[in-house]
């Protein structure tokens, strides 16, 4: 989620495959080890991870925004991202509103979140946490003082209160790491 900026994603991972890490033309975070392998055309095990924008409902024959992330199978760290959605063009379907339903997981702890309208517009309160539901991941903000969990910002924000078990897990959860990418070779970073 830190790679895409999307707050709600669905993730699909394939078995690792051998790739030559020749990703310099993509947004990447290749290390010297990856560059040496690419320069000598030596393959390494790489996971291909499809990350879909889960806010957009998928219907047969329609596309939805997604990216392909290449992760080092040895370290699990993302090393490059293929922004496939940006290559397709055309109109994208409108995102669907987020709803708190079903059971959510933080680490190995599972629980439910009761939707609430309270403070829904204060999305920047608290720290970022990641919740999972099957292959779906949601980046939310958890305010330990109020016990409020919020996804989104402004009028699109959706808040809820986790049950006691999930609330304790959220209070202990670490914020997700960011993975800044280097711009593709031959481009200059945009300011903004």
Question: What report would you give on this structure?
Answer:
It is a single chain. The chain has three helices and eleven strands; from the N terminus they run ββαβββαββββββα. The chain has helices at 32-39, 84-88, 164-172, and strands spanning 8-13, 17-19, 44-53, 66-72, 78-82, 103-106, 109-116, 127-133, 136-143, 148-151, 158-162. A hairpin with a 6-residue loop joins strand 10 (148-151) and strand 11 (158-162).
Task: Give a nutshell description of this structure.
This protein is 11% helix and 35% strand.
Specify the oligomeric state: single chain
Overall outline: elongated
The total strand number stands at 11
Rg estimate, integer Å:
18 Å
Following the backbone from N to C, one meets helices and strands in this order, namely: EEHEEEHEEEEEEH
The poorly predicted ranges are 188-192
User: What kind of sheet is the major sheet?
Assistant: 11 strands, antiparallel
Whole-Å distance between the termini?
A: 20 Å
Which structural traits does this protein have?
mainly beta; eleven-stranded antiparallel beta sheet; disordered C terminus
Helix-strand blueprint:
Layout: E1 8-13, E2 17-19, H1 32-39, E3 44-53, E4 66-72, E5 78-82, H2 84-88, E6 103-106, E7 109-116, E8 127-133, E9 136-143, E10 148-151, E11 158-162, H3 164-172
